[in-house]
Structure prediction request, 234 residues.
Amino acid sequence: MLTGCLKTVKDVQMKLEELGHPMSYQSAINVLHSVEIYAEINKKKPLLTEKHKKARLVWAKKHQYWTVHDWRRVIFSDETKINIWGSDGCKYYWKRKCDHLQPQHIDVTVKHGGGGLMLGSCITSEGPGYACQIYDGTMNSEEYQEILGTSLKDTMEYYGLNWETSVFQHDNDPKHRSKSTTQWMKDSGMIYIDDWPSQSSDLNPIEHIWHHLKLKLSIQKTAPTDLLFLLSAL
Prediction:
């Protein structure tokens, strides 16, 4: 079980029966607890290939001498999916209290699964930006440019920011890197990070905003049951 071969208490119960030690489901749980083995929820991490890892290292070395002032200039942006029914599901693993995190305790994830609605926003050193709903969960280059020209612009005006002192961050999504979007940003005088490494959500502080937003939704007494209810709750 500690190596991940047996996933559930039922698996343990069946294995013990094979070894000549039949027992009830609750007895199997008691046996596990008696040797301080408990269930934990699998941790999640982005799927990182060797290419991803090399790109992250190159990017980190390029920016290793940035100061706190340099990072405070960055406007971080991102999109996230908000599920109607909350989490896509929890998986558990078993461990002793003294055990360290092991590979079998982690769920490797990829982006853009499931349903719900999409939100886009940004965060500055002065505070969070305006959020906007991405209808149908999809967006093309022209729609993305519209968001840059409205929600992002309004956020910068609210905090008194400008492109002489600010740097915009977005990821490598095709609509972010398209020729028309790149030209639009240049025409708008935007200064932006153009080499953000893929699968680097852990580098983006707006992820903490998404976490707290989803956490607040999860503890509401009445859970959203449709998209309109979910949107009003947000």
Summary: Strands lie at 37-41, 43-46, 74-82, 92-96, 106-109, 117-124, 127-128, 132-134, 167-169, 192-193. The CA atoms of residues 3 and 102 lie 8 Å apart.
